Amino acid sequence: MAGPHAPGSDVDIDIGALTASLARDWLRIVLVVLAVTALAFILASTAQKHYKAETRLLIEERESVFTRPDANGSNSPVLDDQGVTSQVEVISSSDLLKQVAGDLGLARLEEFEASGEVSMLGRLLIIAGLRNDPVELPPEERVLKNFREKLTVYRVEGSRVIVVQFSSVDPELAAKVPNAIADAYLALQRKAKAQSDTDATEWLEPEIADLRDKVKEAEGRVADFRGGSDLLMGSNNSVLATQQLSELSSELSRVKANRASSEATASAVRNALAAGTSIESLPEVLSSPLIQRLRESQVQLRATIADLSATLLDNHPRIRALRSQLADLDSQIRSEANKVLEGLETEADAARLRETELIAEVNRLKAESARVGEQEVELRALEREAASQRDLLESYLSRYREAVSRKDRDYLPADARIFSRASVPSEPYFPKVVPITGAALAASLLIMVVFTLMRELFSGRAMRPSYRTTAEPVRQVVMPAHPEADEDADLAPVATAAVAPPREPEQRAVAAPVFTKGQVSIEDAAERLIARGASRAVFVSPEGDEGAAAAVMVAREVADAGLRTLLLDLTSTGAVSGPMLDGAKLPGITDLLCSKAQFTDVIHPDLYSDCHVIPVGNSDPARAMRAVDRLPIIMDSLTTAYDMVIVECGPADGASIKRLASGASEVVISVIEEDDAAVSATEDELKSVGFEKAFLVTPIGYEPPHAPVPDERNAA
């Protein structure tokens, strides 16, 4: 039964055939590569040489601190990044390039095609539509177009340097053009500054004239207002009324202090006289000259009385006369003290009168100062207006004088300078003979190799059938006539015979199938498993490894039918997985049970079909059997990943089979000779454990479809 995905229907690329095609056509490849390389060398050597030169400009402020119009201003960069980029566009502008082209007479050079004449090759390109006809453009436009194609202007990243490059077949012209462009750009900068100064002077002249009139008018309004408002100015540049108010306020404070002092002194003297106490301690009384003389006379009389009292009695006329004089002196002193009191009171009254007068005058000056203050506010506004007009006039005059001075002295520094002028190049930049020749060599070699390989692929000579050879049909199975037949017949394993290809195709002698009782063929067994929807098929081989070939054949048939199929080899000899893996010793189920490998390590592709296989493995079987309880879990995992899992158990007993069969499982008995006692015993044992639907399958007479001949076998 050949499924829709038979392996023999695809093809693979034969790498050996591809490599052989390169070796077979090496002479042609070498000749073509040498021819192309020689042609490239000749063309590069004979091609017209082009030279390139460059001029570098630095955008910077050329003004010094002595000539800068605003010497106190900040020395900020003349242009930002966007400004420098804009200067690149100015340098490559059409007006500047036309000026340079006219100065150098580029229209007379054949290189710029001003005449419109082209070479024969150029005429052919025009006819083929690969090039525009230069005659369609005016001569000036043709020159400008060719000029731009040879010119490169760019800004060095992260700097204020602008590079002007030009290429030409004439090395001297290649150096002249960028230098001329740089000079023209600097001249354009100076001309722009000159125009700016001219525009400034033309604008400032009428403005200055108007400002002069405005300043004169403003200052006249200030003078008229000051004269009409009688705002007389005193010292400290203040209004006279305000100054007088300040002075009177100070005088009033002084008068108030004197009046208070006089009143306090008069009150003290009055209290002393009224109480009859001594007035000698009062400084105002003692300061009177008359009282001072009377005090002196009093002291003398007391001294005389004291002297006479030593020799005379108190009733002596002399003593009595002196005492009478002393009493008169006391009376005179008190009389003079009263006069002093009257003077103090008079002084206090005068101070009060002066204070009253000063208060009246201060009130008058307050009203006058308020009136004058309002007028002063208006005067200050007029003065500020006049001052602002005057400052603006002075600023305009200063700028006007600077502009006129720079214009008259022709001092117009451009904001750029040439720090690297182009020199006549000594070597052409195109063509580079060695790089071009090397590139032609590499490109031609690569193209020829690709061409040879593609031709070999398209011819089909490098393609071969992509198939995985299934087991070869059993050419001759020795069927023992009696149970005690020669043991050599039993030692001929069917699996080994199944993968041994015939030496000659005509020697494929297939024995006629002999089916008895319930035996089914490989194709019928595969169809039955698929029709029943079995997810797990457990094969039992009572006769040993000879019958195990049936599991391999059924697994490949199911895989060819398009189902994802896995074959698990649980035989002790690996008779199932060995032929599928060409005898390779790969990790398998024992390694998985011993936890020495993962699922991805133990699942391998069948070399001859789309089926996958898990071999016996390389670990100790006894150790693996200790973890046999994990086998049902492994089976459940494989059943979820594959459409059908086929397990070859070899001559296993019913208890072991029951452990592996669960869910949608089918039990199949592989037989070579149905009358074998082992087959009957296995049937009876399976029925006893509940597998009444187990059927028998035999590999005898099976011939796989698309069986490869020996020279078509794919070793991969």
From TrEMBL:
Localization per Swiss-Prot or TrEMBL: Cell membrane
SUPFAM superfamilies cross-referenced by the UniProt entry: P-loop containing nucleoside triphosphate hydrolases (SSF52540)
All residue ranges annotated as the Polysaccharide chain length determinant N-terminal domain in the record: 12-103
Pfam families the record matches: Wzz (PF02706)
Transmembrane annotation, as ranges: 26-47, 433-454
Family matches, as InterPro entries: Bact_polysacc_biosynth/exp, EPS_ExoP-like, LPS_length_determ_N, P-loop_NTPase
Keywords: Cell membrane, Coiled coil, Membrane, Transmembrane, Transmembrane helix
Membrane topology: Multi-pass membrane protein
Entry coiled-coil feature ranges: 291-399
NCBIfam families (UniProt xref): eps_transp_fam
Cited PANTHER family: FERRIC ENTEROBACTIN TRANSPORT PROTEIN FEPE (PTHR32309:SF13), TYROSINE-PROTEIN KINASE (PTHR32309)
Protein name: Exopolysaccharide transport family protein
